[in-house]
């Protein structure tokens, strides 16, 4: 009689459904001990082409006449069983995706793949997941490594952009929610560890895989000039040579992806005006309000372009003897984006505009008719922006692992991570003339703008100039500007680790080590402008358009009721405007105001110096950790406890305004466009600090199929690297008052938190259930505050004791005013939450129905941490960035005889993040549900075909300022369709 093993079979099938939503640890399958291995199915060798197919092959063996069932699991299920094993036998609270998982998911990047895990969500930019949020905390609190090495970013902060990492080149991904002493510090929210392939760890001697996919965006046809079609191509090779002592792996992945969106952008409420009388308030009448807040305006735009990413991966591994392995690896990513933004930008005109029939939300104006006056800037600009972003990511490392004796292991690692971003924001403004054919065109100042916001729906708008927006006899190009922003970030790191095995009943081994890193970050701003966006310049006259330069563009779909406008060919317009190349303006500043301007710019662009600079960071860390393997009251207990010491030395270059006083150290400082400024003295300032970070992780195996995890730790996240860059400025007013500001601060300290985790895991015949609760108590956050009566001189500012009144010639003593800067004094608080994950398969159903499965995860997170915002006019509280109270993921899965299909949905309710298309403007985002569908069929052992739809319901991104009535961004991306094949040999 055949003896079946239902628990093993059910685990194998359950694993095939659990990867996206089952918490899984970061340990690989080959780390499972022989004693643990019988708990899982035996896994056969496979490659990525098998990921579309799940096979359970039963083989009856005979040992002393007793039948044994062996289950051979291939492809998708194999990798998921690896993840399930890792979860059960890990020593931390963590999640994992393994190689075949990522190969099975045609996600554009690792950001998409990671959002499949419990407690993890993403912020979509341009329709694609980019920033990762973990347990209700934004990307700034997430630390990331590649092959165990710290990664720098092109984002200009510490948060890496996961869309830089092609899923085809990453063999595994882990998310550590509870730390241990051996992990590099830096993640209050968690640590994301990405891994590339280790060539000698593969089962096959040689394998070669090719993936080809075409894609189509169904909203691109609504955007004039947008690309509808794109493609993805990747190949990889893995091989072992010289009797498995030399391994080689190389990979390449290319993405050509249309970038498409249609959007409405509401701008912040940065002005106010007194509006007497009654008004139609959406929340009831307001009687005689003293002041109402007015938005700067809004934008309505078509976005289009192409994103091109080339990813490269290589690794070579050499094991000349059994106890020594030397590995070198490299990862490179080149992500280029060239995109246009066309439409119009509406400027309401501020407090000097004439306002009729206003509609209010609280004390903020959300509608009315704005008319231009002689003092207001009310206007509609036709915009044709050209944005280019060229990003580079490089990661190199060499690792030597030496098993010195049976008990002692030594590991040495040397690495370099670098990133560079070159973003060029090119803007072409056009304005309406009374008659563009006139010898001296006159700016049309008869401007009337009517609008009414409709919350999370598109607004009602009306323009008295609407017919002129698409008329080349009225529209003239009036200004051109280029605003480059370059970031460079590099970290060199050296690491030495030891592990010594002990023969005790409590401590199985001791680990200790040291790590040193040296990081340099720099940013560089520059600018060129010609013309005027608010009027017509006489010295820099506007350009008359011709038919070959412009095309009339109509809005379609939801936006079809907006007025048409002119899409202007940038190259044609600039060649006509500047036939001999872009000229330099003739008017010069000379030496006025301490500025020497050899290139003759008409504006003092010294802000480019203040927004440029460098940050230096040196870190020395050491740790000791004990690994536990014992029993308490008959219950097996594993885990670790340890301490990590971290010494940090951070500093930044700073410019201090000394009004050109040579005695105070004034220097000639030249920016990237040649302007020499004599007002500033450049210094380097910073701070050093030492931290001690204890941690403990315990795993209690309360039964053969269930266990309880307990973890506690002190964790830290350093401030965003760009917030350490010095940009101090101070000035003295005519009455002698000193005021200053600094968006950043090189003296900022890290975020600190005490965190606690408790989780329960239950494995049963046809599924698994995991429940976890967590609590973080965060000390403080960065906030920008205004410090009144600030002691400028006492804090190192070089300020005069008096100024001379220009009229009377009398001395006026200086007095301390207000200093606005970033500090670590925002009140902290708790973040706590619950995570649930459930997997159910139906292996007991007959025949084809046995391939049916379902899994889901749910997380609830809450926090008492709030901040104040006035972007919507009225000051109101705002939740912690990245926090959604409820996050839900679910997948329905089916496979049968080579065919596999699944539909997955990810929901997160409202959260706070930076507004789409507006940097550093933190707003509220509405809840969203993103649904994806995939189907595949394995034609032969080597050939598989795939069809997929991303964003099946064309879910937009919607944001608002404080209340839903004050519209932020409404951005529609379209659906993405993929069709392709995979071939392996």
UniProtKB/TrEMBL annotation:
InterPro entries: Beta-barrel_TonB, Beta-barrel_TonB_sf, Plug_dom, Plug_dom_sf, TonB_rcpt_bac. Residues 32-53 are annotated as: Disordered. One of its GO terms (cellular component) is cell outer membrane. Residues 34-49 have a biased composition (Polar residues). Transmembrane segments: none annotated. It comes from the Bacteria. SUPFAM superfamilies: Porins. Belongs to the TonB-dependent receptor family. This is TonB-dependent receptor. It comes from Shewanella holmiensis. The lineage of its organism: Bacteria, Pseudomonadati, Pseudomonadota, Gammaproteobacteria, Alteromonadales.
């Amino acid at each position: 009689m055949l003896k079946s093993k239902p628990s093993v079979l059910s685990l194998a099938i359950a694993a095939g459904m659990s990867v996206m939503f089952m918490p899984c640890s970061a340990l690989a399958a080959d780390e499972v001990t022989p004693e643990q291995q019988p708990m899982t199915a035996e896994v056969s060798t496979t490659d990525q082409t098998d990921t579309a197919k799940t096979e359970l092959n039963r083989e009856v063996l005979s040992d002393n006449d007793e039948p044994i069932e062996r289950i051979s699991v291939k492809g998708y299920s194999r990798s998921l069983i690896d993840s399930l094993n890792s979860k059960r036998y890990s020593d931390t609270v963590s999640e994992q995706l393994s190689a075949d998982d990522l190969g099975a998911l045609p996600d554009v990047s690792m950001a998409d793949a990671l959002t499949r895990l419990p407690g993890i969500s993403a912020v979509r930019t341009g329709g694609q997941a980019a920033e990762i949020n973990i347990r209700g905390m934004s990307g700034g609190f997430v630390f990331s490594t590649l092959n165990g090495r710290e990664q720098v970013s092109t984002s200009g902060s510490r948060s890496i952009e996961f869309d830089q990492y092609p899923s085809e080149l990453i063999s595994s991904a882990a998310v550590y929610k509870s730390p241990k002493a051996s992990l590099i510090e830096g993640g209050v929210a968690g640590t994301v560890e990405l891994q590339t392939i280790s060539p000698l760890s593969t089962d096959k001697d040689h394998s070669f895989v090719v993936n080809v996919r075409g894609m189509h965006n169904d909203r691109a046809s609504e955007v004039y000039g947008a690309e509808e079609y794109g493609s993805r191509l990747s190949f990889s090779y893995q091989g072992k040579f010289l009797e498995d002592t030399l391994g080689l792996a190389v990979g390449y992945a290319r993405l050509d992806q249309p970038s498409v969106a249609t959007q409405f952008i509401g701008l912040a409420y940065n002005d106010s005006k007194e509006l007497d009388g009654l008004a139609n308030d959406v929340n009831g009448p307001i009687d005689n309000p003293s002041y109402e807040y007015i938005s700067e305006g809004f934008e309505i735009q078509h976005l289009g372009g192409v994103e091109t990413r080339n990813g490269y991966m290589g690794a070579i591994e050499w094991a000349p003897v059994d106890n020594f392995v030397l590995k070198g690896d490299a990862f490179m990513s080149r992500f280029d984006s060239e995109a246009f933004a066309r439409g119009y930008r509406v400027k309401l005109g501020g407090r000097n505009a004439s306002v009729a029939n206003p509609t209010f939300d609280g004390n903020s104006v959300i509608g009315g008719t704005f008319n231009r006056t002689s003092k207001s800037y009310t206007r509609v600009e036709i915009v044709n922006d050209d944005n280019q972003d060229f990003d580079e990511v490089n990661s190199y490392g060499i690792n030597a692992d030496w098993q010195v004796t049976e008990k002692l292991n030594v590991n040495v690692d040397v690495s370099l991570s670098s990133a560079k971003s070159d973003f060029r924001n090119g803007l072409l403004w056009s304005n309406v003339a009374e008659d563009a054919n006139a010898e001296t065109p006159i700016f049309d100042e008869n401007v009337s703008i009517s609008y009414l916001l409709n919350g999370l729906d598109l607004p009602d708008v009306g323009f008295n100039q609407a017919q002129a927006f698409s008329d080349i006899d009225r529209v003239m190009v009036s200004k051109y500007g280029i605003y480059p922003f370059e970031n460079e970030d590099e970290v060199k790191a050296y690491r030495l680790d030891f592990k010594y095995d002990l023969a005790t009943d409590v401590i199985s081994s001791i680990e200790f080590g040291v790590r040193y890193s040296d990081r340099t970050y720099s940013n560089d701003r520059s600018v060129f402008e010609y013309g005027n966006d608010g009027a017509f310049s006489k010295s820099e006259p506007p350009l008359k358009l011709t038919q070959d330069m412009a095309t009339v563009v109509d809005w379609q779909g939801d936006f079809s009721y907006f007025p048409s406008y002119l899409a202007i060919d940038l190259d044609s317009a600039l060649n006509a405007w500047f036939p001999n190349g872009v000229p330099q303006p003739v008017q010069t500043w000379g030496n006025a105001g301490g500025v020497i301007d050899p290139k003759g710019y008409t504006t003092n662009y010294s802000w480019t110096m203040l927004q440029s600079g460098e940050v230096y960071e040196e870190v020395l860390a050491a740790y000791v950790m004990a690994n536990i393997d014992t029993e308490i009251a008959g219950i097996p207990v594993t885990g670790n406890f340890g301490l990590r010491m971290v010494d940090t030395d951070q500093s930044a270059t700073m410019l201090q305004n000394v009004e050109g006083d040579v005695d105070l150290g004034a220097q000639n400082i030249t920016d990237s466009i040649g302007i020499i400024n004599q007002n500033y003295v450049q210094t380097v300032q910073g701070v050093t600090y030492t931290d001690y970070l204890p941690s403990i992780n315990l795993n209690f195996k309360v039964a053969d199929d269930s266990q309880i995890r307990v973890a506690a730790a002190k964790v830290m996240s350093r401030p965003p690297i760009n917030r350490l860059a010095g940009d101090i400025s101070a000035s003295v007013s005519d009455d002698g008052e000193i005021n200053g500001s600094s968006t950043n601060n090189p003296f900022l300290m890290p975020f600190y938190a005490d965190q606690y985790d408790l989780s329960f895991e239950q494995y049963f015949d046809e599924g698994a259930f995991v429940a976890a609760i967590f609590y973080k108590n965060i000390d403080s956050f960065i906030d920008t505050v205004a410090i009144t009566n600030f002691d400028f001189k006492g804090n190192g500012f070089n300020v005069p004791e008096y100024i001379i009144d220009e009229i009377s010639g009398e001395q006026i003593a200086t007095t301390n005013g207000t200093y606005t800067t970033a500090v670590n004094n925002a009140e902290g608080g708790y973040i706590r939450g619950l995570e649930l994950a459930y997997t159910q398969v139906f292996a007991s159903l007959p025949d084809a129905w046995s391939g049916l499965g379902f899994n889901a995860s749910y997380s609830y997170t809450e926090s008492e941490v709030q901040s104040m915002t006035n972007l919507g006019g009225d000051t109101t509280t705002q939740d912690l960035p990245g926090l959604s109270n409820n996050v839900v993921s679910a997948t329905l899965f089916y496979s049968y005889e080579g065919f596999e299909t699944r539909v997955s949905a990810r929901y997160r309710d409202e959260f706070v993040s930076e507004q789409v298309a507006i940097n550093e403007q933190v707003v509220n985002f509405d809840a969203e549900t993103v649904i994806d569908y995939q189907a595949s069929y394995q034609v032969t052992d080597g050939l598989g075909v795939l069809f997929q739809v991303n964003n099946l319901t064309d879910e937009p991104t919607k944001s608002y300022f404080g209340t839903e009535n004050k519209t932020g961004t409404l951005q529609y991306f379209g659906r993405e369709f993929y069709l392709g094949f995979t071939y392996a040999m």
